[in-house]
Amino acid sequence: MIGFIGAGSIGGAVITGLVKNGFNSDDIIVKGGRSNRTEILSDQLGFQVVKKVKQLAETDIIFIAVGADALNSVLKELKEIAAGKLIVAFTGSASVTHLKQVLGDVKVAHAIPNTPVKVGAGFTGITYSDDFTAEDKKKIGSVLGYTGQLVEVPENELGILGTVAGCSPAFLDVFIEALSDAGVKHGLSRKLAYDAAIGMAIGASKLAKQSDLNVSALKDEVTSPGGSTIRGVAALEEYGFRNAVIKAVDAAENE
Ligand SMILES: NC(=O)c1ccc[n+]([C@@H]2O[C@H](COP(=O)([O-])OP(=O)(O)OC[C@H]3O[C@@H](n4cnc5c(N)ncnc54)[C@H](OP(=O)(O)O)[C@@H]3O)[C@@H](O)[C@H]2O)c1
Description:
Blueprint: E1 2-5, H1 9-20, E2 28-31, H2 37-45, E3 48-50, E4 61-64, H3 68-79, E5 86-89, H4 96-103, E6 107-112, E7 122-128, H5 134-144, E8 148-152, H6 155-185, H7 190-210, H8 215-221, H9 228-238, H10 241-253
Parallel strand pairs: 1-2, 1-4, 2-3, 4-5, 5-6, 7-8
Antiparallel strand pairs: 6-7
Helix pairs in contact: 6-7, 6-10
The structure holds NADP nicotinamide-adenine-dinucleotide phosphate (NAP).
Residues 5-11, 31-35, 37, 65-68, 70, 74, 90-92, 112-113, 115, 166 line the site of NADP nicotinamide-adenine-dinucleotide phosphate.
């Protein structure tokens, strides 16, 4: 049995990814916030909703998916029932050290999922406290594995990993929208332009993942001398595409 505290954007995305990809919703209990967001999601997915954190006492793993403002009050309530459980916080500002400080001798982890978890294609970075055993990590993997890839990293890399994998879906959405605008400008219908741009992003990502070649070599393969693709790549460089992407990550990293 697993529990969630908070089912907003990321909590809801993880729960959706779990259930849509085969995790039994009877094994999920969720404590929601003040709005009826959790009840609405429960109507769609069929998990149990509870009003108090202590009603998660029967669970083995609890995921905390509240924002920074609610974290400490949630941890205070959670302390009463946390013994023996694995606690995983998605809250950006949480840290393994802070979670341990507040919860005491409890195994804790800090994880940053991205929104594609919703369709089982997520990329989640995770840092475990030192007392996590291989068996404990397997347990977390057996749950979050339903939502996509799970990669263990040192906590000092979790923030930038969260930006590269977590903010970038929005960056890619902007790229897809821009590519579609260009298609429309040159005469495609909006629907066909979006279908083409999204289909390309899925296909090119799949190729990059499955190919033995790195993305630079894949680009080299499709840029014939003097051809249209290399002219497009040169225009991207001329207008600072690569630098714009790096600056976007810089901006996300620097508050
Ligand atoms: N969004 C992302 O892509 C993403 C990715 C990785 C990590 N994160 C991190 O995850 C955290 C949450 O982000 P979010 O985007 O999911 O925010 P969000 O959409 O505002 O969701 C937070 C949820 O927490 C609920 N909540 C607040 N206090 C609660 C309490 N005492 N008990 C139970 N539920 C409570 C709220 O419920 P009500 O609205 O019903 O009050 C809200 O639905 C942030 O720290 C963020 O940095 C987000």
